[in-house]
Design goal:
alpha/beta; 4-stranded mixed beta sheet; disordered N terminus; 14 strands
Length: about 450
């Protein structure tokens, strides 16, 4: 395996990813390192595989309890044990890079669209193509084609889709009641969000209408851009859309929120996380991905006071798009247990496990038709997330996503500080992104 070459390329792009995604980037979805054993003494298979314990690494502690139950089921069926470790999002990729350098990646782990091509193109992931072709459980036709595209390189599969996510608007019913405002509905536009946010913001800084930070891309302003007819990257991944007039126009809505003071300062959002501010009743509205369900369900305050609804529409175009993504279950190319690792991935991607993932409220599942159970897994209007599947746009990505997304986030800080207008920032983001895309050619 090309570890020296791979590490040079990996380290060249090393930065903390600016994602809210699918299950990363926010403070509550990025937990401290922990581990749990998913083991069973009632194995139905007494083969040599029963002596194997697979190391499994993820970054979202909110999903760990449900996934552990599913892996317990796997152990009961196969005798193969698993040990799950949860690592903070920002530290997750450092851990994988260190493992790649030393040839000691976890046996099985989550892969994300921001990083997938880098790992696939450098022989870091186990080639699953033949295994999928021979599988009775995994048929690519049963999962979104775009998700497979994230984990395919040179016509080979390197991960099995884990989930699919959409974005919705969360709101605090209690704060709306106190302000005498009607709750958001599926008919709302982004203009309605603006007007409500002004009325929900208190002059003393104790409460704000909404929160959307400089790195709130998939779960925030990307959706507004596509609603308005703009785009982030063109279809053949050669050109940025940040300087498109429709993109700039959409982003100027966010600039208005900044200038009107209806959002906390960037420093406050960076220190606490938008989700934490929402969970503590400091902000009345937040756009958030379906991967946050477990956090809001298990938080006493949000469970009692909050609910969700479909994203607002563009008042100009009438479009209501949702940026979507999906994680993949991948295995190390150098795992000492490739057969067992594949058995685990195959099971996690199976209809049985995907249905249980949905029923437990872990997250929406990638297997077609299994997410209805997820919508019934908590006392929120989760049907809103399923309704957002009517107009989905795959999360913008290229080979250098990590580089240009992080630079975009840095440039966006200048809008919050008043050092750049949104138009100036968008044009600067286009310039730097186009340089990255040119280097990919």
């Amino acid at each position: 395996m090309k570890f020296r070459k791979a590490m040079a390329l990996l380290l060249a792009g090393t930065m903390a990813l600016s994602m809210a995604a699918c299950g990363g980037g926010s403070s509550s979805s990025s937990s401290d390192s922990s581990s749990s054993d998913a083991e069973s003494t009632d194995s139905t298979d007494s083969s040599d595989s029963s002596d194997v314990t697979l190391s499994v690494t993820i970054w979202d502690s909110n999903q760990e309890p449900g996934l552990t139950q599913i892996m317990n089921d796997f152990t009961e069926k196969t005798g193969i044990k698993t040990k799950v470790s949860v690592v903070k999002w920002d530290e997750y990729w450092t851990l994988l890079e260190s493992g790649a350098q030393g040839g000691s990646l976890p046996d099985v782990f989550w892969m994300h669209s921001n990083e997938s091509e880098r790992y696939m193109s450098n022989d870091m992931l186990l080639d699953l193509t033949d295994k999928i072709a021979d599988s009775s459980e995994i048929d690519p036709a049963n999962y979104p084609e775009d998700i497979w595209g994230l984990y395919t390189y040179d016509d080979k599969y390197y991960a099995v889709p884990k989930d699919v996510d959409t974005i919705a608007l969360w709101y605090n019913k209690t704060l709306f009641d106190e302000a005498g405002l009607e709750y958001p509905t599926a008919d709302w536009t982004w203009d309605d969000v603006t007007e409500a946010a002004k009325k929900l913001t208190k002059d003393d800084g104790s409460q704000y209408g909404l929160a959307m930070g400089n790195g709130s891309n998939q779960d925030g302003y990307y959706n507004m851009v596509y609603d308005n007819g703009g785009y982030i990257i063109n279809d053949d991944k050669t050109q940025s859309g940040w300087d498109d007039p429709k993109t700039i126009e959409a982003m100027q809505t966010m600039e208005g929120w900044i200038n009107d003071g209806v959002m906390p300062s960037l420093e406050t959002m960076s220190e606490n996380g938008n989700d934490v501010l929402f969970e503590s009743g400091k902000v009345a509205m937040i756009t958030q991905g379906s991967w946050m369900l477990a956090a809001y369900r298990d938080n006493e305050y949000t469970a009692a006071n909050c609910d969700c609804v479909e994203l607002p529409k563009s008042a100009t175009t009438g479009r209501r798009a949702s940026i979507y993504n999906g994680l993949g279950w991948a295995a190390s190319a150098t795992t000492e247990h490739p057969d067992e690792a594949w058995q685990l991935i195959e099971y996690l991607g199976s209809k049985e496990a995907q249905e249980k993932q949905a029923e437990l409220g872990v997250t929406m599942s990638a297997y077609t038709g299994t997410s209805d159970a997820w919508a019934k897994s908590a006392d929120f209007n989760l049907q809103a997330y399923l309704n957002m599947m009517d107009d989905m746009v795959i999360r913008p990505y290229s080979r250098s996503t990590v580089t240009w997304e992080n630079e975009d986030s840095e440039i966006m800080k200048d809008v919050f500080s008043g050092d750049k207008t949104m138009e100036e920032a968008c044009k600067a983001m286009a310039d730097q992104m186009n340089e990255c895309l040119a280097d990919e050619q």
